[in-house]
Design brief:
The protein is an all-alpha fold. Helix content is 75%, strand content 1%. It contains 28 helices and two strands. It has a two-stranded antiparallel ribbon with strand order 1-2. Helix 18 packs parallel to helix 21 and helix 21 packs parallel to helix 23. 26% of the residues are buried.
Length: 824
């Protein structure tokens, strides 16, 4: 049955559904065939409709394909006959085209054969006409070129005979007269291009002497600089001697001078301070004695005649700049020895001495602006090099020698008119480096002093030993002086040694400040600042490290406290020492004060803190030995062994303080204060440690017997506190360290919860120091123990009442804790 009949028989609803499907799939197929929208969206729409949508889509797709196949077949059947006819006609045309191609090829070949002879004769005629014209033109142009060639030949002869001036004139005629007549010819262009090269050859030949000169001054720069610096040092020594003579009031000079003051044109520097006997033995050389300057003058004249003086000046300056860069480039190992620095400075001085001579001996070859620019460039490089290499120096003696070289170097160049202020500014930077090396050196010295000290008072057997000690260290005590020999001084051996080394440091720091052209006030300020660095950084660091060393015991720490007190008192003598050296009054407005007070005070505080720390650490070691049986039914009736050992240790420790020398009231007061603070700190730490032991989170259960045993131990602690292990405490001050723990234990021992809860928060409460959270934590541990040990006791009335009481107290304590947290 066909589709129409089926449609006619289908219900209306089925027919509408099928039409909708055909329309929908038709749209989908149209989108797929157009290839414009994304295929993913189109294909997704196929599967999103119904469960069997894929099957329906494939059926519709097959039907669509069959329809397209039928349409293609119809189209091919319709056009097939026309295609066959077109192919048949094309085959006929191809045969005619081949025949036409054969005919055209034959005709072309016959035409080429006929024109060959005519073409050859025509080309021969053209060639003969060109040759004839070229010959006439050549004869005409040769008549113009022969004079040019003759002049060029003459030029070559002059060059071969080294007649450079005549050659330059000939080249001038060639360029201005002859070559312009025939300038369009290639050989003339080559000749014109050659003439500048010939001129350059003449310049190079004339410059050979200049290169020899440059090589000569490069080799002799070291010697020139050495001579100049030596003369500058002699001149400086002579001036110092003259100033000293004037200050001493002598009427005649110290020695006669046979030196001469040379101008920059005549010599390198001044010949001064040379004795008559030494003048013949050690002749002072000048730059002209070491280097012949005539080549540079001749070369300058030649370039001036050539009209290229500027080029010569630029070349000379460029080469000298290159030599300057080489001179300014130091050796990598220059910082290892002073000779490396001396050679570096000699080369630089020699370079600029030569430049100064050229500046005054020539007219504009170098200018003051050029030398200033070159010096500024060199000065920046010199400062960078010295700053870098001086940072490698760890030997203060080498840094000091470097400073002296820089001063002589600066004075030498300053004598030639070069500004050297930046070099003196650099010396201040190197001074800081010098101070750093001194500080490192003295740090080692202080460490050795502290390591070799026995940290016990200095024994003095007789008057001679006593004077020896006080000559090294400013110690004065009337009571000790009244005592009979032998006697002991309160400080240890390290105190006078440290004092002497501080003075040695000041001397070493003063050495660098000499010859810096600074006032006494500035030198005084520098010495005080460097001494402050020694005290506040180096000595303070050594003291701090000493205090932290594990082998330093309590006795040594107390001795360190006494030592720092004496060193602090000696700071005023150090200030007087600096004042005597610099002759600057300490009342000067800008005078820097020594910071010894804060340095040694910090060291004392650190020592005291270390005493307290060591005591607390020892207490912790004893506490770790505690081995309580927290579930015991009743106590042993005596205190624990670990606690008795701890108390004995504390007694013997605090006796150490009482055995310290008390012949000086200040020292006795100091040791007593330290002992009191240490004793109070130890008792507080012990109380806190015992409380933490009770409240340890890992401890889950505590019995009343364990509480009783713990109470016995705390009673021993209170007895120790009341026995006045260290004198000076008022009343029961020391026992207050255990008051929190005592009230907590009393609360549990008496089981006085009604009083605690009723008086909680009152200033007069018996258990004022018991925190509800602490009581709750401990009671929870006892509650768990009660449950575990009384599994069957719940049938006894007393046990049931006690358990209910504990639960009631726990609830009330929790409410107090919650109230405190909400209030907070």
């Amino acid at each position: 049955m066909d589709r129409a009949n089926l449609v006619g028989l289908s219900p209306p609803n089925a027919l509408d559904k099928e039409n909708r499907e055909d329309s929908m799939y038709g749209n989908i197929f149209a989108e797929l065939e157009s290839l414009e929208p994304p295929l993913g969206t189109t294909l997704r729409s196929v599967y999103d409709d119904q469960p069997n949508a894929h099957k329906r889509f494939m059926e519709k797709l097959d039907a669509r394909i069959r329809n397209h196949d039928r349409e293609i077949e119809k189209m091919c059947n319709f056009h097939h006959q026309g295609f066959v006819d077109a192919i048949t006609e094309l085959l006929k045309v191809r045969a005619d085209a081949e025949k036409l191609m054969v005919q055209v090829t034959g005709t072309n070949r016959r035409l080429q054969d006929a024109g060959k002879e005519v073409t050859a004769q025509t080309e021969e005629m053209i060639r003969c006409r060109v040759q004839q014209r070229n010959i006439a033109t050549t004869v005409e142009k040769l008549q113009l070129c022969i004079p040019v060639l003759e002049m060029y030949s003459k030029l070559k002869e002059q060059l071969d005979s080294k007649r450079y001036y005549a050659a330059l004139k000939t080249m001038e005629q060639l360029e201005n007269i002859y070559i312009p007549r025939v300038s369009k010819y290639r050989f003339c262009q080559i000749m014109a291009e050659t003439l500048p090269k010939l001129r350059e050859e003449i310049k190079e030949i004339s410059m050979s002497d200049l290169k020899d000169f440059l090589e000569s001054i490069r080799k002799h720069s070291d010697k020139i600089g050495e001579t100049a610096m030596k003369q500058a040092q002699q001149h400086r020594t002579f001036n110092s001697a003259v100033q000293k003579q004037s200050s001493m009031g002598y009427g005649k000079p110290l020695y006669m001078l046979n030196g001469k003051a040379s101008s920059p044109e005549s010599g390198v520097a001044l010949e001064v301070g040379v004795d008559e006997e030494e003048e013949h033995d050690d002749e002072v050389l000048t730059a002209q004695d070491l280097v012949d300057f005539s080549p540079v003058f001749r070369c300058l004249h030649i370039y001036t005649v050539l009209g290229d003086r500027e080029t010569f000046e630029n070349y000379y300056r460029k080469q000298r700049r290159k030599q300057a860069r080489l001179v300014l480039q130091p050796q990598s190992s220059m910082h290892e020895t002073v000779e490396g620095y001396r050679k570096y400075f000699n080369q630089i001085v020699g370079f600029f001495v030569v430049e100064d001579h050229i500046l005054h001996a020539t007219q504009g070859l170098v200018t003051r602006a050029y030398t200033d620019e070159l010096w500024n460039m060199a000065l920046s490089k010199i400062i960078a090099v010295l700053r870098t290499h001086s940072s490698y120096c760890s030997d203060p003696d080498l840094v000091l020698e470097l400073k002296n070289l820089i001063v002589i170097f600066a004075d030498t160049l300053q004598g030639y008119g070069f500004p050297v202020n930046r070099l003196f500014d650099l010396l201040f930077e190197i001074r800081d480096q010098y101070n750093e090396t001194l500080l490192k050196k003295w740090a080692g010295v202080f460490r050795e002093i502290f390591e070799s000290d026995n940290y016990s008072p200095i024994p003095v057997e007789d008057e001679e030993e006593y004077k020896t000690v006080i000559s090294r260290f400013p110690f004065h005590d009337a009571e000790i002086e009244k005592q009979q020999f032998p006697k002991k001084l309160p400080m240890s051996q390290s105190v006078p040694q440290v004092y002497i080394q501080v003075k040695e440091f000041i001397y070493a720091s003063l050495k660098f400040s000499e010859s810096l052209h600074r006032s006494s006030t500035e030198i005084d300020d520098m010495l005080r600042k460097s001494t402050n660095l020694l005290l506040t950084r180096t000595l303070s660091s050594c003291l701090q490290n000493l205090i932290k060393k594990p082998h330093i015991g309590l006795t040594e720490l107390v001795q360190i406290i006494i030592n720092t007190t004496h060193l602090e008192q000696a700071c005023k003598y150090l200030e007087d020492f600096i004042t005597n050296i610099t002759n600057v009054s300490p009342e000067t407005i800008h005078t820097t004060r020594l910071y010894g007070l804060s340095t040694f005070k910090d060291a004392r505080h650190a020592a005291e803190g270390e005493i307290y720390t060591k005591l607390n650490q020892k207490i912790d070691e004893f506490i770790q030995l505690a081995d309580y049986e927290w579930t015991m039914s009743e106590s042993d009736g005596r205190a624990s062994g670990y606690l008795m050992d701890l108390i004995n240790f504390l007694r013997s420790t605090f006796q150490v303080f009482t055995h310290l020398p008390n012949n000086n009231n200040d020292h006795a007061a100091m040791s007593g204060k330290v002992a009191q603070t240490a004793c109070m700190s130890a008792c507080k730490h012990l109380s806190i440690s015992l409380t933490q032991m009770l409240l340890d989170s890992e401890l889950k259960q505590i019995s009343m017997g364990a509480i009783q045993q713990f109470n016995l131990d705390v009673m021993q602690c209170e007895l120790f506190a009341s026995s006045e292990p260290v004198p000076g405490f008022q009343g029961d001050t020391l026992q207050l360290a255990f008051i929190d723990l005592r009230q907590l234990l009393d609360l549990f021992m008496v089981w006085d919860w009604s009083t605690y809860l009723a008086d909680y928060g009152q200033p007069t409460s018996k258990y004022l120091r018991v925190n509800p959270s602490t009581a709750l934590a401990l009671l929870e541990k006892m509650k768990d123990t009660s449950k575990k040990n009384n599994i069957f006791s719940q049938f006894r009335k007393n046990d049931r009442d006690k358990q209910k009481l504990i639960e009631t107290v726990v609830k009330q304590l929790r409410s107090l804790v919650n109230g405190m947290s909400q209030h907070t």
